[in-house]
Design the sequence.
């Protein structure tokens, strides 16, 4: 009996040691597990260097770097939360946090973060990680969607070159893509393998909202005029003007680059970070430039889902984890992380850094757009992942290919979509 009790206690101690935080070592040091989703070489290097610098300066609180993957992060985190083995510090994206926050898996950071960090990041960014009355992550990297253009084709066409101070309207953009098309070339290639976030986020510029929260807190979908401008423009470019390639609608952003380099497409709407791939992969002599996305009634406004850093609710060392976040997101360090990922920092001080304001590689264009970025429309909508996968993605894919019309798209987004969301709001 005594042996069985001893074995049980040993098993329990091993289980607790494997849980969030890694526990305290025999030498009394605290160990924090930091799961990073950095994947580009420059970004991984920047993250690991910062972890080493922290560890050198904080011998009593050691941070262990754990490599995660964007491809499987949601399911992996859910499994680790339910199994009591979540990392202390969690790298994710704000549009993935809602269910984790409402499910009680993430710590409310309201009373943990230093005032410096709270003040440095604008309120519009904090809104992306606020669920109910709590703050469940720190938004630290963001990227607008921009137009990457073949500079030589733009020059040859004679079209007006847009700038953040004078962007194209959506009507003008449609006309420009027609002028850039012909002789086997398309004015634009829309890589819309994942069409929902691109459509919703760009639609903020035209007054689109789609998700409407009532006084009772429940969300309904309404596909109104402002929501229709962007999808109708893409639909017409593909099916009426033939100025957008139909074959790229099911492609990811990287899949369009060979055709872009070959001159098959004059422009490709992409996330700001794709500039790194373009710089690395473009053939010698290929001249490209970054242009702002078209503007609508709301100007250059776009929705974004920033990358975030959260703390697990089960972590026994929340204050130490918050101190590490404060270190990691000091302005100079935030610049290092932004440069490593070719993205924009959310911090106001970091955005002032000259390295992020150079014309080279379009950094200045991106920085000029930072003030126009807002919380993505679906940010706090419970049930959004199911609505996106089961309703919106197939409906938009069929619409963009010309298989259904605008009225059918509206019906499916609203009727079918509201049935899905209702299950999460009872």
Sequence:
């Amino acid at each position: 009996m005594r042996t069985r009790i001893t074995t049980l206690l040993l098993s329990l101690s091993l289980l607790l040691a494997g849980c969030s935080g890694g526990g305290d070592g025999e030498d009394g040091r605290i160990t924090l597990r930091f799961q990073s989703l950095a994947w580009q070489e420059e970004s991984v290097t920047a993250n690991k260097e910062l972890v080493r610098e922290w560890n050198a300066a904080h011998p009593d609180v050691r941070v262990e770097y754990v490599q995660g993957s964007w491809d499987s992060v949601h399911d992996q985190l859910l499994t680790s939360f339910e199994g009591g083995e979540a990392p202390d510090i969690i790298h994710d994206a704000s549009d993935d946090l809602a269910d984790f926050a409402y499910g009680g898996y993430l710590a409310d950071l309201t009373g943990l973060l230093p005032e410096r960090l709270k003040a440095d990041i604008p309120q519009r960014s904090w809104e992306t990680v606020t669920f109910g009355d709590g703050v469940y992550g720190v938004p630290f990297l963001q990227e607008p969607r921009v137009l990457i253009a073949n500079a030589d084709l733009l020059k040859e066409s004679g079209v007006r070159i847009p700038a953040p101070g004078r962007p194209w309207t959506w009507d003008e953009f449609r006309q420009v893509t027609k002028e850039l098309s012909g002789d086997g070339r398309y004015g634009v290639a829309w890589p819309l393998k994942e069409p929902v976030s691109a459509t919703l986020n760009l639609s903020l510029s035209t007054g689109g909202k789609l998700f409407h929260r009532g006084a009772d807190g429940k969300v309904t979908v309404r596909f109104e005029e402002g929501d229709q401008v962007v999808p109708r423009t893409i639909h017409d470019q593909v099916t009426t003007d033939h100025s957008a390639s139909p074959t790229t609608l099911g492609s990811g952003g990287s899949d369009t680059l060979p055709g872009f380099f070959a001159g098959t497409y004059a422009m490709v709407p992409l996330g700001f970070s794709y500039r790194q791939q373009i710089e690395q992969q473009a053939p010698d002599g290929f001249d490209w430039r970054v242009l702002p996305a078209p503007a609508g009634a709301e100007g250059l406004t776009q929705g974004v889902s920033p990358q975030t850093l959260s703390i697990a609710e089960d972590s026994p060392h929340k204050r130490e984890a918050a101190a590490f976040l404060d270190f990691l997101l000091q302005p100079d360090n935030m610049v290092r992380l932004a440069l490593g990922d070719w993205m924009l920092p959310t911090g106001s001080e970091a955005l002032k850094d000259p390295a992020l304001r150079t014309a080279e590689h379009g950094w200045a264009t991106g920085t000029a757009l930072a003030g126009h970025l807002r919380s993505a429309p679906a940010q706090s909508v419970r049930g959004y992942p199911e609505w996106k996968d089961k309703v919106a993605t197939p409906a938009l894919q069929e619409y963009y290919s010309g298989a259904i019309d605008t009225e059918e798209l509206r019906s499916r987004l609203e009727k079918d979509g509201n049935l899905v969301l209702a299950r999460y709001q009872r």
